[in-house]
């Protein structure tokens, strides 16, 4: 009898696309009655009605008090029994949970609803072997090592009280300042004990000129005009006045470039530090080269393989990209208004990046399938051992991480194998830059 009712299910295709389908489904009234009877029987067993023990109340009282609960239960049961049956009738295999858009339910009528579902795209991946790639190799030289050394000296410099009476263009000042718009105090822009680098490009407009030549204990008045797009609309595009008191004038002293400096940074001596710096720069250059090669390959694959994509996956990926960027900007102290503005301005880019991410995932998955690229248990164990060796004193944490992230680790290994396959089969032309 149940089979007959399922055969009576009426399914009408309202819309169809390469990766989605929308159906109008009509469940026969007999099925509605059958499920309604079952639902009332279940509710009757546990119904709490004053004056009656569970299961002993008259059914008409149960129906009077539990109509809405039964209605929801019947709808839930009918959807579970018919949604996938309706999709199966159209040979449609959904990639995620179908969505119900409209429902028309009445105990005395057939149950009618609209369902939309998506599926994975059907395509044949092509042109993934013999991809032409240009690889620029940068040979690390002594000049680059010296430049890095100077950067280390800058980061390890110390500030000492200036021997000069007045501040120069590269001096560091400790100041207190108050800010005013006309005569109105702007407390949110006032600071105490603020360090100012007169040589910085990020200095407030007017401060470099206004404070050069200043002496300790001196007070100065500086006018500064804020840009039109400044987040604080109250002062955007307007001129404000800063009253600045100079507390200290300091000079930056760089450490000597010698063995002692190298030892402070964990090296045996200066030559050892230079060797370590060169190795680090070469490692970073190798990473850059590989990333550039991968990008060229991925760009080619995206351009050469065109196929439709499920909208829900694009939307999901877009939301993830926006969330990642939002969290990053929040950590940088960017206001929510500015974040919202960024999202609005970059929305087309977010959509395009999401499309490329989803499409590339399908392409790489298809390549792995065609080339039978997978991860063996030995490879998984080898990766586990690497993670354990890298964290020798955190056995419990590592074990917990490995148990919770087995699939992610396996996916990472598989992706690396796919990348290696693509690079090994690419036609790479190398050029050397010294």
Describe this structure in words.
With 434 residues, this protein is an alpha+beta fold. The chain is built from 14 helices and twelve strands.
Helix and strand sequence: HEEHHHEEEHEEEEHEEHHHHHHHHE
Distance between the termini: 81 Å
Major β-sheet profile:
6 strands, antiparallel
Question: What is the overall shape?
Answer: extended
Unreliable spans are 1-7
Helix segment tally: 14
The amount of beta strand, in percent, is: 15-25%
State mean pLDDT (0 to 100 scale).
91
Rg (CA only): 34 Å
Return the structural class: alpha+beta
The count of DSSP E runs of length 2 or more, i.e. the number of strands, is: 12
Q: What is the percent of helical residues?
A: 40-55%
Task: Give the helix/strand layout.
Layout: H1 2-7, E1 10-17, E2 20-27, H2 29-46, H3 59-65, H4 67-89, E3 99-104, E4 111-118, E5 132-138, H5 142-155, E6 158-161, E7 172-181, E8 184-185, E9 191-197, H6 207-211, E10 219-225, E11 239-253, H7 259-264, H8 270-304, H9 311-331, H10 336-345, H11 347-370, H12 377-390, H13 395-404, H14 406-424, E12 427-433
Parallel strand pairs: 5-12
Antiparallel strand pairs: 1-2, 2-4, 3-4, 6-11, 7-8, 7-9, 7-11, 10-11
Helix pairs in contact: 2-4, 5-8, 9-11
Which short descriptors sum up this protein?
6-stranded antiparallel sheet, 14 helices, 12 strands, extended, disordered N terminus
